[in-house]
Amino acid sequence: MQVPLLDLRLQNQPLKDRILAGIEAVVESQAFILGPVVERLEKAVAQYCGAPHAFGVSSGTDAELVLLMALGIGPGDKVITTPYTFFATAGCISRVGARPVFVDIDPATYNISVPALEAALQREAGVKAIIPVHLFGCCADMEPIVALGRRYGIPVLEDAAQALGAEHPLGGAGAISEAGWFSFYPTKNLGAFGDAGMVVCRDPALAARIKALRNHGMEPRYFHQWIGGNFRIDAIQASVLEIKLLCLDDWSAGRRARAAFYRAEFARLGLDRQLVLPVEPWSNSGRTNHHIYNQFVVRTPHRDALRAHLQAAGIGSEIYYPLPLHLQECFKDLGYREGDFPESERAAKESLALPIFPELTEAQQHHVTSQIAVFFSSR
User: Fold this and answer.
1) Phi then psi dihedrals of residue 337, to 5 deg
2) CB of 172 within 8 A of CB of 290?
3) In a domain, 182, yes or no
């Protein structure tokens, strides 16, 4: 039996006719960049996550970049974030000329450690933003993070690239603090047919700058108060996303159901003593989407051998992420060394994402769990 890490064909095929009709409508309208379809998507995403303002952009990376630009963050500034995340989180900080200041993660959630964040705020001068990452579809511990931001007068910007629809007791991911962003890369829980992203925020003045900066800082047409970039979303991607957004809650429920199946099977097989399973810190909050499982990540000291065994059994997996950002070659000038962030480094060595998507069958999940049982029985 083959079990892919993800199979987008199963998600997109039932929507094919509706998606093609939406694309055809865009072609007929000839409004390919921004326009009414984009505006409808922006309104729908803003309402969905609970943000007053939303702006479609060309990717999740560009969403972060334009937000940092709109806040005027640049050379001489510092931005605190985690080294255990996708590269763009820190890459965008460097691209605007600011300095990433890394702090370690909580080993249970993989999200930013609140005590480490507080220590960094006490230690570092010139911090202009805090970026918690809602990794794998689970919100960071936002209540103390927001409180720290307010205490120090520093905006909290949520990297919710993997977490559209995830919920925290304070609200929806991306819309809990001053601003946040989402990625619509095809493999995300809400994926486009190419690159796309969205920025959300609360402040009207910030919203106006974001809107202008995504279009070369132009407002009104051919008048430029700021130097922006070409960060515009195209209408075809917006049309695809508008249709798929209507399915997102059902897909999230499917992911959670498959996560629950894994937990039950791992417990039945005694594998919950061999693997560290994902935690659900907000499961008692009354929120339905307390974890949306963009990835189902387990950890074991035997990660690499387990992955090789699964591959031989026809089971897909992925390592998110094999090298923390503070050890990446391009960030060597920051002066960090191995051992500076032990929890991030340990997670990079031990974590493994298993297949989880709404169309995954019980038979496929049984194959995954049984093969993991075979692996550990031989050790």
Assistant:
1) -135, 165
2) no
3) yes
List the domain range (segments joined by +) for residue 355: 248-377
Helix 88-95 with 60-70: angle, nearest 10 deg:
40
Neighbouring CB atoms inside 10 A of 228's CB total 21
Same-domain status, 240 and 372: no
Question: Is residue 326 a contact partner of residue 334, using CB atoms and an 8 Å limit?
Answer: yes
Q: What is the pTM of this model?
A: 0.96
Domain tally for the chain?
2
Tokens of 99: 């300095």
CATH of residue 265's domain is 3.90.1150.10
**Distance separating alpha carbons of residues 20 and 289, to the nearest angstrom:** 29
Are 73 and 187 found together in one domain? yes
- Of 206, 287, 245, 193, which Cα lies nearest the Cα of 44? 245
Q: What would the pLDDT profile of 72-126 be if each residue is shown by its tens digit?
A: 999 999 999 999 999 999 999 999 999 999 999 999 999 999 999 999 999 999 9
**Tokens for 353?**
């994402």
Distance between CA atoms of residues 276 and 66, nearest Å: 37
Tell me how far apart the alpha carbons of residues 32 and 92 are, in angstroms, rounded to a whole number.
27
What is the Cα–Cα distance from 156 to 234, expressed in whole angstroms?
28
230 lies in the same domain as 258? no
Kind plus residue range of the DSSP H or E element containing 12:
helix 8-12
Residue 2 counted as domain residue: no
Q: Of 21, 1, 19, which Cα lies nearest the Cα of 9?
A: 19
Q: Do both 302 and 239 map to the same domain?
A: no
Rounded distance between C-alpha atoms, residue 128 and residue 108, angstroms: 27
SS3 (DSSP) at 276: strand
Is residue 109 domain-shared with residue 127, that is, in the same domain? yes
Looking at the structure, tell me whether residues 64 and 171 fall in a common domain.
Answer: yes
Helix, strand or coil for residue 378? coil
